[in-house]
Design a protein that fits this description.
The complex is a heterodimer. By secondary structure, chain A is mainly alpha-helical. Chain A has one domain (about 1-250). Chain A has eleven helices and two strands; from the N terminus they run αααββαααααααα. Chain B is of the alpha/beta class. Chain B folds into two domains: about 5-225, P-loop containing nucleotide triphosphate hydrolases (Rossmann fold); about 230-305, 2-Layer Sandwich (Alpha-Beta Plaits), CATH 3.30.70.1560. Chain B has ten helices and 14 strands. Chain B has helices spanning about 45-50, 75-80, 95-105, 110-125, 140-150, 170-185, 195-205, 220-225, 270-280, 295-305, and strands at about 5-15, 20-30, 35-40, 60-65, 70, 80-85, 160, 190-195, 205-210, 215-220, 230-235, 250-255, 260-265, 285-290. Chain B is globular. Classes of the chains: A mainly alpha, B alpha/beta. The interface of A and B includes residues 14, 98, 103 and 258 of A.
């Protein structure tokens, strides 16, 4: 019992440190997502969206709201963990955790918790911005919140794995630039995959972001290209796989121990 | 029954890049000891410390801390150890107090108690007035002391210091010595690696010397210093000498007109030296060791190892 109280204290310490870290530099961590999303709403929602008309029976601006919110959550959950964990490796203060009686799973959930906290905070900021452009009606609060949390956990784990492998600052920007951004943009944020030819629809199904965007869109609008159950199972499977990979890497000391 | 604070058996480490840093070392440090682990750069000291403190994976061997096996009870082992590493490894962008309190949190100490412990540790190391200052803004000496304060915040039974006084001025170094001696007297076992051999000689009761990944000496400081056959003294004279004096049994050389270097065999003592010089009308104003005794012995041992001799 006492041991688990100790773990809980260690977890609280890590996650609070993480939250304080990104809140101290909120101009770099929270504000940019709100500004970028506002620009998306102005350009794609209002200026171009009015010419596009409807998509899946919704005004285009309403259709892209879920994707834009989730895109901000994804990038910020990822960015928080990858930058925080890598800089703790770079400055070597990760050693403070490695010498302490903190199990690796606590380190993982502590850092991932920090990523989720930033993802959610950015999600709230972006949602507030979206209210200036559209009347947001939530179809299912439960699904919306669940997808938000699960997606945030998944990409925070992705950021952690990237940070564990990274040896230089370049290494932490390669994955977001060449993997994360294309997957997100091609993940149905701005369009329904039903608009694509059959072949590209099948290809799109290999993109995990598609399931998250559609599950989140289901939570907000009640519409999705993918059955909600399938989407949730896929997201959970990815979380399990990435969680196991992170755990394995920390247990072996990959990237953090000689 | 003597309790070992640290017991290492056949510890080996081969890095993936190739070099074998530790070639099967055995080491025992008793509870309450002030122990020196010395060796030249690259000898394997930091690797050994890294393994003991879980920063480096071992290739083979066993590490026990206060009877807890590192493989079977890693968390118990970690709870017993406080580590002051060679290089600054704290978050430079946090206030001093946060650096110390967060470390307590990682050891499972609840926030209120962590803040209390942090205050106590910072006060002990004269850093309390700097508690709100960002760690990166501290001077080099303060950063060293911050690492000691951080290592002590969970009240470890074994404190490992890897060159804690490197780059620190003599005044702060001496105040750190006094602090560490007091800490050791209060029951904390201390393992010290340092390149200041005077520091090791003054502070430590037992010693191990490691070279090329092997322990080449493991004994008490007194027993080790007793191995020193010859000591060299520097004598400052009242009057300038015209001619180099000769004395049977003493090797004398002249540094300058008023300074002599005399090598004295340990068995012979220095009374005869003073008597002989006095007979020749030479008055000695002061005397000092040319080198710290441990330093001389250390260099002799490394030279002997280099030449393949038995030191």
């Amino acid at each position: 019992m006492r041991r688990y109280q100790g773990y809980w204290t260690a977890f609280q310490t890590i996650i609070l440190k993480e939250i304080v870290r990104f809140m101290r530099i909120w101009i770099q961590t929270i504000l940019p997502a709100a500004i970028t999303t506002a620009l998306y709403f102005i350009i794609f929602g209002t200026l171009i969206g009015n010419r596009i008309g409807e998509m899946d029976g919704y005004r285009y601006i309403d259709f892209i709201v879920p994707g834009l919110i989730l895109m901000a959550v994804i990038t910020n959950s990822y960015a928080n963990v990858v930058s925080s964990f890598f800089s703790s490796k770079f400055q070597r203060h990760i050693e403070e955790l490695l010498i302490a009686p903190v199990p690796n799973w606590i380190i993982i959930i502590g850092f991932v918790g920090g990523g989720v906290a930033r993802g959610l905070m950015v999600g709230v900021a972006v949602t507030l911005v979206s209210l200036f452009f559209t009347d947001l009606a939530i179809y299912s609060y439960g699904i919306t919140f669940l997808v938000l949390i699960l997606t945030s956990i998944l990409f925070a784990l992705g950021g952690l794995i990237n940070a564990i492998f990274a040896r230089t600052f370049d290494d932490i920007s390669i994955v977001p630039t060449f993997v994360l951004t294309p997957l997100t943009y091609l993940g149905g944020v701005f369009y329904s995959i039903k608009m694509l030819p059959e072949f590209w629809q099948q290809v799109s199904l290999g993109n995990p972001v598609l399931y998250m965007v559609n599950a989140f869109r289901y939570g907000l609008l009640g519409a999705s290209d993918i059955p909600i159950g399938t989407a949730l199972v896929i997201i959970l499977l990815f979380i399990l796989v990435l969680g196991a990979v992170s755990m394995h890497m920390l247990e072996r000391g990959i990237g953090i121990k000689s | 029954m003597v309790v070992n604070a640290l017991k290492i058996t056949d510890l080996r480490k081969t890095y993936k890049s190739g070099p074998q840093a530790l070639c099967g070392i055995d080491l025992a440090v008793e509870e309450g000891d002030f122990f020196a682990l010395l060796g030249p750069n690259g000898a394997g000291k930091s690797t050994a410390i890294g393994i003991i403190s879980s920063l480096i994976n071992k290739s083979y061997g066993q590490v026990e801390v206060f009877g807890h096996d590192l493989d079977r009870e890693p968390e118990m082992v970690k709870s017993c150890i406080g580590l002051v590493p060679q290089e600054f490894n704290f978050n430079q962008f946090l206030p001093t107090e946060e650096v110390v309190a967060n470390q307590a949190g990682y050891y499972g100490i609840p926030r209120a108690q962590a803040m209390h412990n942090a205050e106590e540790s910072l006060r002990q190391l004269d850093l309390w007035p700097k508690r709100k200052v960002m760690a990166r803004e501290l001077s080099g000496g303060m950063k060293r002391r911050l690492m000691i304060a951080r290592a002590l915040v969970h009240r470890p039974r074994l404190l490992i210091l890897d060159e804690p006084t490197a780059g620190v001025d003599i005044e702060i170094r001496r105040s750190m010595w006094a602090f560490l001696q007091e800490l050791n007297r209060s029951g904390t076992t201390i393992i010290l690696t340092t390149h200041y051999l005077e520091e090791a000689e003054n502070l430590c009761r037992n010693i191990a010397i490691i070279n090329h990944g092997s322990i080449v000496e493991h004994s008490s400081m007194d027993a080790l210093l007793a191995k020193l056959h010859t000591e060299t003294f520097v004598l400052t004279l009242r009057d300038r000498l015209e001619q180099l004096p000769t004395l049977d049994g003493f090797a004398i050389s002249q540094r300058d007109g008023r300074t002599l270097e005399v090598s004295v065999e340990r068995e012979r003592g220095i009374n005869g030296l003073f008597a002989g010089l006095s007979q020749q009308g030479i008055e000695v104003l002061s005397l000092r060791n040319k080198q710290n005794r441990l330093e001389q012995l250390f260099i002799d041992m490394l030279d002997a190892a280099r030449n393949g001799e038995n030191p």
